[in-house]
Amino acid sequence: MIYLDYQATTPLAPEAREAMxxxxxxxxxxxxxxPHSAHKPGRAAAAAVEFARExxxxxxxxxxxxxxxxxxxxxxxxxxxxxxxxRLAVSAIEHAAVLETAQFQDPxxxxxxxxGHGLIDPDxxxxxxxxxxxxxxxxxxxxxxxxxxxxxxxxxxxxxLVLCDAVQGAGKLDAPEGADLIAISAHxxxxxxxxxxxxVRDGVTLRPIVHGGxxxxxxxxxxxxxxxxxxxGAAAALALExxxxxxxxxxxxxxxxxxALADFTLNGSAARRWHGNLNLRREGLDVARLMSDxxxxxxxxxxxxxxxxxxxxxxxxxxxxxxxxxxxxIRLGFGRYTRMPEVAEACALIxxxxxxx
Length: 357
Description:
alpha/beta; Aspartate Aminotransferase, domain 1; Aspartate Aminotransferase, domain 2; 2 domains
């Protein structure tokens, strides 16, 4: 199997797995202890959690705190619902975890449009009285990188909090500038599933949305998993250590894939995007048949969270694609553990199968 779906999830780094193992120990070792307990094993587990928190915090700007959550979806819900904001504005290409939560909180939520390249105009109008503006750093479907700093400056000048979904950019790009709240997920940067984080700028007050224990500084109740925290921390540290090397590797894979699929049309900006995301379309392409013909290649027809819904991608529609064009699009995602021969083989098979339709 050739795995080309890094936007959906990334392979667990061996270093992250090794960091987790001591905290998955059985009854003959203290690694199973509750990190919220006051006894010696509990204090050791708490120390592992705090060490991991420091490593994860290095992904964010200074001047804030890291709140561990079950994933980015919970982090985004905590940011939106916990902020108490009543008038919201979000970009048209946000993940469903932002769009649906924002519309739950504010049924009249303003949707900020993007252009045909999948980019928000930094001068786009913000609604009067807006309390919170959500702008993702890197789009999960088309990989475009938004002008977060410019938009954040305008939003904060208007008195609004700024939330950034940095799930796809964390550990790959510098932390988004100007945000008050930033959400990330461990499994998108070679950490374990089941854990994420919300960075909260100093001075920003949130109310909890999960009650019953008061862990995580009163913002998120529930027993933390030292194993998941340790894996997250190790993955974060590794991402920062390997950032330049990973970027160079991804650029090489991007160039090879673009050359091999030159007769496909790129969806989204070629210049302002993370090159580990390649979203392409081809006129008349039957994507369901293509995926059936190429079962030894793991790739996506859109966002993994929306696959199976039967609906065309809201992101591709937002950049002006017709329903037919959206349905003739595929997404290839690659990263640290993708090998060049795998990309070459997969692209050759995709090109051949598409040409044969």
